[in-house]
């Protein structure tokens, strides 16, 4: 007995000591922000959608509203996520489906180049067309919300597993990528979803269960600790652009930000997204990223995905619990009304009408017939109609991947012109012997890399390999052609590339993806920056024997080329990114000069892994508590860090060569008369409600005439006894006891000074153009080509990056012709976020603008008055 007591005491002390240790660390915290902002009927671009949504929501019952906000459960229906239907009003279930390169898990869809590759085009129009084509394909399959584009990860760490799904670590390039993608997707009639909001920069420790799977017993997910200035100037920036473009939905992220979960963080959702940025659409959780019921509702979450607490538990934080929480007044009525309103407004905003064609595909099987409720094995019927939605998108895909291929080095071997003998080396040039779709969610690196892995994958309708396309070109040209599609046939490779007249093209790659799949020890994030499958050895071996070696890299981000890039036998290096289904045709177009390259690298190629100054956290740093990832470098990621720390790099951000040459001259700065900035003042209207509801719990009990489907999430209570219905023995109390102050306040709220008055994206004066910068670009070579002039600014302060990209264009220029480049600088472009003022402020430091072909070739410069 005594022993037991002593053991108990020491255990207690141990626990206390352990907790003490944790308390001693000053963990980042997230300020509360309540109440959750309600929709603004006058918001730019949303007025008509609001009116339609209000008319619709006013007819809905409470159960129907809850049904619209809560997913039906993992694998309960055909899409990766669905919410309940409103049959009484003729609305079928909404389908939320992946995403970033094509419609996931179906057939007869296209596979597009990754966002990162699209970013490398530096071409707004192409990114827009890509979005539109993807939106059309989604619509054709019956998808309501396409779960992209991606601005989180932004790309803080070069090893970040999902960087390829997004655009670039530069917030302006990503912001433009977001804006054009959102517009494109939504013009096609599909709701876009900006994800993952926010600070979702690495795969490790984003989910507790996943971390347990690779041996770390953490109790809570990683916390991305981001200060207010960095948040605004870097990570929030591209989301602001998405909101300004009218994005219909945003997905909150798995991990915590400043030690509060992404999907219940009122600072992020209520304050930044809905209030400051004036976001009018709805926020859905990432899959299983919701951890609370009422708390997440008042923190700003509008849709629970996929609806169950964890996959296939059959119970939900919302569903019946949300019904109960509204009836008993914990979650205020205006909040559930606002959730439904936001969802329906996004729906109507993209031109949808209540009657929508049915979903004609099924994510869980490619069989034609099967159970429509997959998890329950219920409702056997035709579920796949194999609808071909590809249109002529193959041409666009080929063009984007070619125009997104960066010519990093060329000493004159390119473009190829009927070469005598081409030897193609490497498995990255060939097919996956088991077929392009053989690895689930593309979780392997076999054959040519044309897609990363995870939920961002899709099924290839075909995959043109480099070997296939290059051989076809060779046959046409009368070129001798041989390929060795393995990295390990040393003697045969040596024999081949040593022959006279050989042009050796070596294909190598580096892959990454989402954290639920481990490929060769890479838990989503890459474990290093080297080439996969002995790629470096392959390049070195071939180039030691062949004086005309061309290297093509397919990768999800930068790799280390330091050891070999300046070998004179390596006459050209190309980064072909993640090209999608037309891979071989696109690279052939570039190698043979059918497309004159003009892409620019959307990230820096550092000389060493350490040169980036940031790295993935691979081991938890807080015992079994939430790993703490301090974003201590502030805004200094990628080129901003290299410029500041002067660490060694090989190819700078924005670098990319052409087969012609350009000359820059004559920079001019023109000031616009934008007037002075006026912070927003005033108040919102009080929160509206639409309709009313009964408080008699009998009215919410599961209907006797409805068949219960196993694991399906319903809005109904299983009994009219509240305690039993909630399955909570402590049921009772008031909202005030459980929720933070002001969480249920419906009175008019002050408008934030940086927020817009009805202008999504923030105070509209932030987007006033203050300066136009012009320069002349001359094509001094012999062939036509596109040039990508880039406009950078130095804000001049001691804490500002040396230069920051602010605008760019991609311009076609004929030989001898001179074309003006015109770049614009908005008020936001010239401001810093001032955490004390809580607004954007133009500092008194002298500002300089630069124009040039990359972040380090900025010969033209001018002062701003
Ligand atoms: C989790 C991923 O993080 C998200 O991007 C995706 O949309 C959902 N799963 C649904 O597949």
UniProtKB/TrEMBL annotation:
It catalyses: Hydrolysis of terminal, non-reducing beta-D-glucosyl residues with release of beta-D-glucose. Transmembrane segments: none annotated. The keyword Nuclease does not apply. Keywords: Carbohydrate metabolism, Glycoprotein, Glycosidase, Hydrolase, Polysaccharide degradation, Signal. It holds the Pfam family Fn3-like. SUPFAM superfamilies: (Trans)glycosidases (SSF51445), Beta-D-glucan exohydrolase, C-terminal domain (SSF52279). Residues 787-855 form the Fibronectin type III-like domain. GO terms for biological process: glucan catabolic process. Residues 1-17 form the signal peptide. Pathway: Glycan metabolism; cellulose degradation. It is an enzyme of class 3 (hydrolase). Gene3D superfamilies: Glycoside hydrolase family 3 C-terminal domain, Glycoside hydrolase, family 3, N-terminal domain, Immunoglobulins. It comes from the Eukaryota. One of its GO terms (molecular function) is beta-glucosidase activity. Its EC number is 3.2.1.21. Belongs to the glycosyl hydrolase 3 family. This is Beta-glucosidase cel3A. It comes from Apodospora peruviana. The lineage of its organism: Eukaryota, Fungi, Dikarya, Ascomycota, Pezizomycotina.
């Amino acid at each position: 007995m005594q022993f037991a007591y002593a053991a108990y005491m020491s255990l207690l002390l141990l626990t206390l000591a352990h907790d003490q240790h944790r308390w001693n660390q000053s963990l980042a915290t997230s300020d509360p922000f309540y109440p959750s902002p309600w929709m603004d009927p006058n918001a730019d671009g949303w007025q008509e959608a609001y009116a339609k949504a209000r008319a619709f929501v006013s007819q809905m019952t409470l159960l129907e509203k809850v049904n619209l906000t809560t997913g039906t459960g993992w694998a309960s229906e055909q899409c990766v996520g669905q919410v309940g239907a409103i049959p009484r009003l003729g609305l079928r279930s909404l389908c939320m489906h992946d995403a970033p390169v094509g419609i996931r898990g179906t057939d007869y869809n296209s596979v597009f180049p990754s966002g990162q590759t699209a970013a490398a085009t530096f071409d707004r129009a192409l990114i827009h067309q890509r979005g539109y084509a993807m939106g059309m394909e989604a619509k054709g399959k019956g998808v309501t919300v396409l779960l992209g584009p991606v601005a989180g990860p932004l790309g803080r760490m070069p090893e970040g597993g999902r960087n390829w799904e997004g655009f670039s670590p530069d917030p302006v390039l990503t912001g433009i990528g977001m804006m054009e993608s959102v517009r494109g997707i939504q013009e096609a009639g599909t709701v876009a979803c900006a994800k993952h909001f926010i600070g979702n920069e690495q795969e490790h420790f984003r989910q507790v269960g996943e971390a347990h799977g690779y041996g770390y017993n953490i109790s809570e997910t990683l916390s991305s600790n981001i200060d207010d200035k960095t948040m605004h100037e870097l990570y929030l920036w591209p989301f602001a652009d998405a909101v300004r473009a009218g994005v219909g939905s945003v997905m909150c992220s798995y991990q915590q930000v400043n030690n509060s979960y992404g999907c219940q963080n009122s600072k992020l959702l209520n304050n930044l997204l809905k209030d400051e940025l004036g976001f009018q659409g709805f926020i859905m959780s990432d899959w299983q990223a919701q951890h609370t019921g009422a708390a997440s509702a008042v923190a700003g979450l509008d849709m629970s995905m996929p609806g169950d607490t964890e996959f296939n538990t059959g119970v939900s934080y919302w569903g019946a619990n949300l019904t109960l929480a509204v009836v008993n007044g914990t979650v205020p009525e205006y909040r559930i009304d606002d959730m439904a309103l936001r969802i329906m407004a996004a729906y109507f905003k993209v031109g949808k009408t209540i009657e929508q064609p049915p979903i004609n595909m099924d994510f869980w099987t490619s069989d034609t017939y099967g159970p429509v409720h997959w998890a329950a094995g219920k409702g056997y019927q035709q579920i796949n109609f194999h609808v071909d939605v590809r249109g002529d998108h193959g041409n666009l895909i080929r063009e984007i991947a070619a125009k997104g291929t960066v010519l990093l080095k060329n000493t004159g071997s390119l473009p190829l012109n009927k070469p005598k003998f081409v030897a193609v080396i490497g498995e990255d040039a060939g097919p996956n012997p088991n077929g392009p779709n053989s690895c689930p969610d593309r979780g392997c690196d076999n054959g040519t890399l044309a897609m990363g892995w995870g939920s961002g994958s899709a099924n290839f309708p075909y995959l043109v390999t480099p070997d296939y396309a290059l051989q076809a070109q060779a046959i046409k040209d009368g070129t001798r052609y041989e390929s060795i599609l393995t990295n390990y046939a040393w003697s045969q490779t040596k024999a081949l590339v040593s022959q006279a007249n050989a042009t050796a093209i070596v294909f190598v790659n580096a892959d990454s993806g989402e954290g639920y799949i481990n490929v060769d020890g890479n838990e989503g994030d890459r474990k290093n920056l080297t080439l996969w499958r002995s790629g470096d050895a392959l390049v070195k071996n071939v180039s030691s024997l062949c004086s005309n070696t061309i290297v093509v890299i397919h990768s999800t981000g930068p790799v280390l080329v330091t050891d070999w890039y300046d070998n004179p036998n390596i006459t050209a290096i190309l980064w072909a990114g993640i090209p999608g289904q037309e891979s071989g045709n696109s690279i052939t177009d570039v190698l043979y000069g059918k497309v004159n390259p003009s892409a620019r690298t959307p990230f820096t190629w550092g000389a060493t892994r350490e040169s980036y100054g940031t790295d993935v956290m691979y081991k938890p740093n807080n015992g079994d508590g939430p790993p703490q990832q301090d974003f201590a470098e502030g805004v200094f990621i990628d080129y901003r860090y290299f410029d500041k720390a002067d660490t060694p790099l090989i190819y700078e951000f924005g670098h990319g060569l052409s087969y012609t040459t350009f000359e820059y001259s004559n920079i001019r700065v023109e000031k616009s008369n934008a007037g002075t900035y006026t912070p927003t003042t005033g108040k919102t209207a009080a929160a509206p409600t639409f309709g009313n509801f009964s408080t008699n719990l009998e009215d919410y009990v599961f209907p006797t005439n409805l068949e219960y489907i196993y694991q399906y999430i319903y809005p109904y209570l299983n009994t009219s006894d509240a305690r039993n219905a909630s399955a909570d023995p402590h049921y009772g109390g008031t909202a005030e006891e459980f929720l933070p102050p002001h969480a249920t306040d419906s009175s008019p709220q002050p408008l934030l000074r940086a927020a817009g008055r009805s202008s999504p994206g923030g105070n509209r004066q932030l987007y006033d153009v203050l300066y136009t910068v012009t320069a002349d670009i001359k094509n001094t070579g012999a062939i036509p080509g596109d040039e990508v002039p880039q406009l950078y600014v130095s804000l001049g302060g001691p804490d500002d990056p040396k230069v920051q990209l602010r605008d760019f264009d991609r311009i076609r220029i004929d030989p001898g012709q001179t074309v003006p480049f015109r770049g614009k600088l908005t008020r936001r472009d010239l401001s810093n976020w001032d955490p004390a003022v809580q607004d954007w402020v133009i500092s008194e430091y002298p500002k300089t603008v630069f124009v040039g072909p990359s972040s380090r070739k900025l010969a033209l410069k001018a002062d701003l008055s």
